[in-house]
Amino acid sequence: MNSNRRSFLKTSAAFGAALAAPSLIPGRAAAAGEIEVGVLFSQTGGLSIVEKSLADATLMAIDEINATGGVNGMMIKPIVEDGASDPKTYNEKASKLVIRDRVPTVFGSYTSASRKAVLPVFEKRNSMYFYPTYYEGFECSKNVVYTGAVPNQQLSNFIPWIINTLGKKKFFIVGSNYIYPREMAKVSKILIEQNGGEYVADEYLELGHSEWGAMVSKIKDSGCDVVLSNVVGDSVVAFYREFKNQGLTHDVLPICATVTSEIEIAAMGADFAVGSYTSFPYFQAIDTPENKAFIERYRAFVGDPKAVTHHALESSYFQVFLWKQAVEKAGEATPDAIREGIKGQTFDAPNGKVTVDPDNLHTYLTPRIAQWGADGQGTIVEAYPEPVRPMPYVAYGETPDNLFCTAQGLDSSKL
Q: Could you give the residue ranges of the DSSP H alpha helices within 246-288?
């Protein structure tokens, strides 16, 4: 284990042993010259295949900020907790961080199930949660800063491109059985029909399911010419392997995914994904000096010269810097101050310029599509020229001139 990461985990353990100490005032230094924050990702369970890297990226950002003087001269002290790939555990750990540790900010979650599990904690206690994962939208909370893609930054470019560029019009939609895949399917169906395609099936298996034989057989017999995958976690590995094992190839029947990233491909083996596609704002393949430097720093931090970067990891990294800028602008780290300070913040992230929308606290991001190669890396085949405004309710008619989610809250009359 890299010494930087090991030191953070030791620090976290020390915090756990010190919980009997007097409570700390939120937004004030934990000790002289310190600010505590929560880091809540799954270190164990089926989702740890992805979430360990999100925790590492968060700790790396904290390390880099501390190395350059911290936040207003104060060092950031992370309290690391394990969500254990279980929404109930996530809720318990979030409650511990907010109520017992009294941290004003937590960075965490990968799945929408875990985000939904912790959201009541942050809204009831008026604490701030920074969520780094692409998600299905349809949420408007003043207690969450959303730094991953929403559907108009991931599907609004993808579906038309599949139909018009690949010439594929018959979609088999498949996903893991929880809120993100089901909501993404709803958005996809609207876009498929708007662009002259059709969906022949909409099927689900439980999160973590590893037996994909029957589902792949159903795909083969469906008459589809493209598979839209919203499969999540280690199920991605089992799905792609079974896809190839049954003789299906991506040049004839491509999987076009909203979840499959460099980290799942590294886990499954690149041969199983060659020729398939994914839509994300960030890929390791982005060919800029800034991204190349980011990759090298991440590999050095985790002590693995072959470690891969991916969208949720990159968002986990840059959101800490957005938080830092918000605290510095506000002059304090209370939740209310962070909420106001984060509005309109910009940062030159590895994927390019990102900006927090002052209305809905989601992030402007640049949509991209990549095709996976034999080296486990994507070749970017389509990219927008500039970042796109986040619209979490785009599937329900939201437009830049008719926002549903604003600083005043959700206008439910528009739904």
A: 262-268
Q: Tell me the mean pLDDT in the region 402-412.
A: 92
Cβ-based neighbours of 366, under 8 Å, separated by 6 or more = 281, 351, 352, 383, 384, 386, 387, 388
Mean pLDDT score, 178-201: 94
Domain of 208 in residue numbering reads as: 152-285+369-414
Q: Which helix (H) or strand (E) holds 277?
A: strand 277-280
- Whole-model pTM? 0.90
pLDDT number for residue 8? 44
Tell me what percent of the residues of the chain surpass a pLDDT of 90: 86
Q: Token pair of 306, please?
A: 């072959």
Tokens linked to 232:
């999540």
CATH of the domain at 135: 3.40.50.2300
Co-location of 271 and 409 in the same domain: yes
Residues 6+ apart with CB under 8 A from 5: 56, 59, 301, 302, 303
Total of domains in the chain = 2
Chain centre to alpha carbon of residue 168? 27
H or E stretch including 192? helix 179-194
* 114 and 90 Cβ atoms separated by less than 8 Å: yes
CB 178 within 8 A of CB 252: no
- In angstroms, what CA-CA distances link 278 with 100, 154, 317, 373, 395? 40, 9, 21, 12, 20
Q: Are 140 and 404 in contact (CB under 8 A)?
A: yes
